[in-house]
């Protein structure tokens, strides 16, 4: 797995992914997929635009584009950001790519961007996502009770977060065990190798956000 900057050509993949009702069910507050014009706006603002630090998720061995992940609402004053991820290619679910991408973004946020806290929201029925976040060190910090109506019943919206000292502690433990958190993913080509990312530096990100 490798994270690359999004390029304008990725728009057609976004159209496929976000028109899918299963992806909408798992990740969207509104029940039903996004309209094409909404996908255009989302891509321009949040994938290649300035509103988020978004990265394209590629399978390292084949370079296939399989999804997207992002840090949004980057708050330099309080050192916080929100994390989002969508593996849009459904045949790529459950192979470890999401967990690996999340781990790299978290490492980048704390290691390079010097953030203090990353949080996210996930619907309580999305067990795969919650397990993936937990595997990267996120813990549940609260629930908005029955905030989502989906599949004919109410579900909680779960808030999860990870703090920088918690991440450092996990890094220490993993180093002691002699492996990184990326060493056991489903991508044989990436096993044991350090994460590869083209993500920009803190200075670049903050300059984009603050204009300074
Ligand atoms: C959520 C998502 C990012 C997870 O990435 P992934 O590559 O599919 O997941 P991984 O292979 O890394 O596995 C994550 C965990 O879920 C488990 N898992 C896999 N399939 C599962 C399933 N059908 N049900 C429950 N858990 C499942 C895995 O065993 C693993 O847990 P473990 O580490 O405790 O063994 C990805 O599936 C996705 O983008 N889904 C669609 C959109 C979405 O839900 N986005 C998140 C919105 S908050």
Brief descriptors of the model:
about 35% helix; 7-stranded mixed β-sheet; binds coenzyme A; single chain; about 210 residues
Characterization of the model:
Helix 1 (11-18) crosses helix 3 (36-47). The chain has seven helices and seven strands; from the N terminus they run βαααβββαβαββαα. It has one domain: Gcn5-related N-acetyltransferase (GNAT) (Aminopeptidase, 3-Layer(aba) Sandwich). A seven-stranded mixed beta sheet has the order 1-2-3-4-5-7-6, with helices on both faces. The protein has helices at residues 11-18, 21-27, 36-47, 97-111, 127-135, 164-176, 202-210, and strands at 2-5, 52-58, 65-75, 80-87, 117-123, 139-150, 153-163. It is 34% helix and 28% strand. The longest helix has 15 residues, at 97-111. By secondary structure, it is α+β, with helices and mostly antiparallel strands. Strand 3 (65-75) and strand 4 (80-87) form a beta hairpin. Mean pLDDT is 89; it is low at 181-196. The protein binds coenzyme A. Coenzyme A is lined by residues 23, 26-27, 67, 85-87, 93-99, 122, 126-129, 131-132, 135.
